[in-house]
Predict the 3D structure of the following.
Amino acid sequence: MTEPAYLPLSSGSQPPYAVPSYTSSLLRAPHQPLVALAPTIERSGPVFSPSQFLITADLSHEAGRSAFGQRILVAGRVTDEADRPVPNTMIELWQANAAGRYHHVADARDAPLDPNFRGNGRVFTDPEGYYHFLSIKPGAYPWGNHHNAWRPAHIHFSLFGASWGARLITQMYFPDDPLLAFDPIYQAIPDPAARARLVAAFDLDLTQPNLALGYRFDIVLRGLHATPMEGAR
Amino acid sequence: MRPVTASQTIGPFWHPLGDPALADLTRFGATGTRLALTGRIIDGGGVSVDDACVEIWQATPLASPVFPGWGRCATRTGGEFGFRTLAPDASAPYLAVAIFSRGLVKPLWTRVYFADTGDPLLAALPAARRATLLARAEPAGWRWDVRLQGDGETVFLEM
């Protein structure tokens, strides 16, 4: 037997560092090939407690007042490649408001801020890997990447998983968004099926009567897997 | 097997995650040998990366209610970041590092070492590249600068 290890990532499922159409990547993508790592301390990772990292599962209210926008419930399950649940893991969330503006000092564009929307949340998966939170649908917003560039509506997700190598930051998109076809960040993912998995599914069963539209977004993190030693029977 | 979810950039507006307290791993009162680490991130044009998220993880001392083992720091003007933590055990004198930023659609994984003790990863690197993973001792603490691209490019790892 050998130590559990990370499985190779499936071809095309992850974007390359250098994305010619994504201007900001041009001077930040490394040029040297990556060096293969035999993980040691990377096989362990931080454990977060809701006692130190407070849960904010409702982004749609601030001090009891409703934010503007289409209210949504986002729910899903976090697993590893073998469909094993990732329990009790922290998920950090942040997003623009309904007008497509972030509550952030660096976002100074001419779109309204919503005093009842800060746009950041934090939830933990349950023992079976399920999570959910309430929010509002973010707006699309323009950015400076190229002429008439607009980011599709998206929610940022940050996850830790069971070990350092499982760490993932990604973005959840919405179905039928025409901007996806023109977005260099989304289109940086080579495999169309991998791109499609970043688009949440509208789910009537998740939809809360008189409250919020339901979207399902499942996430797969890298896990450590027992692998037979090369040459072993 | 299910494919791992695709990574996307942290973008420029991630700072709701950036509580400055997270850069001080000793904030809960952990005791031991203190270690201060500062550095600067520059891009392939030599320009400071001032909107990055730098995270560290260390397996020793063991994480506990007073020592999280994990830290996060936003780079400031000049691309500077800094952590206060406890020194990892001499048997594995390094921290795991992940760098996220606008322009990076997936994290840059690396390590910072505080001694060149013949660790297999360091030993396999040519001297000039090995040096990019070694912090240097300065009067105020350890210093480790990161070059994302070009001359003196930091060694980044395939997880």
Notes: The domain at 15-147 of chain B is CATH 2.60.130.10 (Protocatechuate 3,4-Dioxygenase, subunit A). The mean pLDDT of chain B is 97. The longest strand of chain B covers residues 34-42. The first helix of chain B runs from residue 120 to 123.
